[in-house]
C-alpha cells in the first residue's frame, strides 16, 4: 500500500491506564510531515507516557497510532521513528565515538554506512575534538547532544524528544535547537515535549497542550492566543505619584472607558484592544488627571498567558 499522503503521525483516541490511573484519556492529534510540534502540559499531564507510547515503549490501553500511514508495530513505523528520551541513555564508561557506534548498531545502521554516520554526528554535535573522551566526564549540555545524536543516527523521518533541553545552559539549548532545525530542514518531522514556554513559542509551528491526559488546546500560537486570552495588549504606565482613583477615558465609539490602576501604586495597568486607536486617548486621560508619565510598557499576549489561562495556577505535584 502506498502512503505518500499519510501524515507523519496520526493518533486517534489514545488511552493509557496504569491500573486505575488514567494517564491518557483519549488523545487525538496529527503531526504533519515536516512539522515541528511542541507538547506542553503541567507535571503529570501525560507527556512522557504519550512519547513512550508513540515510540512503542509502552503499550496503549486503547486507540490507534499510525506512523506515515503504517501501524505502530510495523517495521516501516519502527524505522521511521527516532526517540530521544528524557533520561540520558548513554554509556558513561564509553567514549563519544563508542557510544555512537553502539547506538548505530542498535538501530540497525548498516556497517558500511555507520562510519559515515558517526563522522556526521561528531561534526553535527560539535564534539569532534571530544570523540575519544569518556562521556562520563562531559557537561550536561554535551551529554544531551550525544544523547540526541544517538537517537537519530538511523536518520528517522520522525523524531520524538522528551524534554531535550532539560538541565542545560542557554548556549547548549541554542545549539540543540540549531541541530534540530538542521534535521527539520532536511525533512524530518519533530515532536517534542518541554516546560520552556518560550522555546515552544519560538521553535515550533504548532502547539498542543495536554492536561490530565487530555488535549485541551491544539493550534498555532496565534490561534491559541485568539481563542483564549484574545489579542488585547497589556499596557503598563509608570506615573510620578500614587494613583488615587482609576483613570477613565471618556467617550464612546472605539474609545472604551477604562477602569484601571491599583490605588497606592505608582503604576497604572490596563488592557487595550487596538493600540493604534486607543493608546493616545488613554495617555491623554492619564495626563488630564494630573499625572506625569515617566515610562510605559506594552505587552503582547504570550504562550505563558495562554498556558496559565488554560491550566490555572494550582500546583500539580
Ligand atoms: N510506569 C508508571 N506506573 C504508574 N503510573 C505512572 C507510570 N508512568 C507515569 N505514571 C503516571 O501517569 C501520569 C502521567 O505521567 P507522565 O510522566 O506521562 O506525565 P508528564 O506530563 O510527562 O509529567 P512531567 O512533566 O512531570 O514529566 C502521572 O500521574 C504519573 O504518575
Automatic annotation (TrEMBL):
The keyword Cell division does not apply. Pfam families: ABC_tran (PF00005). Gene3D superfamilies: P-loop containing nucleotide triphosphate hydrolases. The keyword Chloroplast does not apply. Its EC number is 3.6.3.-. InterPro entries: AAA+_ATPase (IPR003593), ABC_transporter-like_ATP-bd (IPR003439), ABC_transporter-like_CS (IPR017871), P-loop_NTPase (IPR027417). Residues 9-237 form the ABC transporter domain. Keywords: ATP-binding, Hydrolase, Nucleotide-binding. This is Putative ABC transporter ATP-binding protein YxlF. It comes from Stieleria maiorica. The lineage of its organism: Bacteria, Pseudomonadati, Planctomycetota, Planctomycetia, Pirellulales. The gene is yxlF_5.
